[in-house]
Amino acid sequence: MTTITICTTCRNAETRESKAGDPTGEAFLDHTRAAVASHDGLTVRGTACLMGCDHGCNAAISAHGKMTYVLGRFDGTPEDAAALADYAGKHAASATGAVPYRTWPQGVKGHFISRVPPLD
């Protein structure tokens, strides 16, 4: 099972400085939950702060024994959530979590912050 973790306290670049309104991460979580409905093998959870405030909105894609990927600089839109879910579906289908670049959805290109090797 591949898990998408969305930072619920993130703010996109537009609202980061003003702190006006609710954090963008809350809406991003809702959009991502809706986007994964059409994908098998994915689950979504929210967490308060992935410590990537300069890169918000942030998300992590992880699974036991696979590479974890941290992505950011999303606006938190339904389109961002759909691209993230598509990439996570490819992560779920991969034995290692690595996804060939040529198959990445356009909406995740330029959003990768880091990758973390599995602990196993």
Question: Describe it for me?
Answer:
With about 120 residues, the protein is α+β, with helices and mostly antiparallel strands. Helix content is about 25%, strand content about 20%. It has one domain (about 1-115): Glutaredoxin, CATH 3.40.30. It has 2 helices and 5 strands. Helix 1 crosses helix 2. The longest helix has 16 residues, at about 80-95. It is globular and about 40 Å long. It holds the Pfam family DUF1636.
- What's the total number of strands? 5
> How many DSSP helices?
2
What top-tier CATH class fits best?
A: Alpha Beta
Report low-confidence residues grouped into runs of 5 or more. Answer: none
Strand order of the largest sheet: 2-1-3-4-5
Coarse morphology: globular
Class by alpha and beta content: alpha+beta
Return Rg in Å: 13 Å
Question: What is the typical, i.e. mean, pLDDT?
Answer: 94
User: Could you estimate the helical fraction of the residues in percent?
Assistant: 10-25%
Instruction: State the order of secondary-structure elements, H for helix, E for strand.
Output: EHEEEHE
Instruction: Report the biggest beta sheet as strand number plus sense, adding barrel if it closes.
Output: 5 strands, mixed
Looking at CATH, which topology would you report? Glutaredoxin
CATH architecture: 3-Layer(aba) Sandwich
Distance between the termini: 16 Å
Pfam families: DUF1636
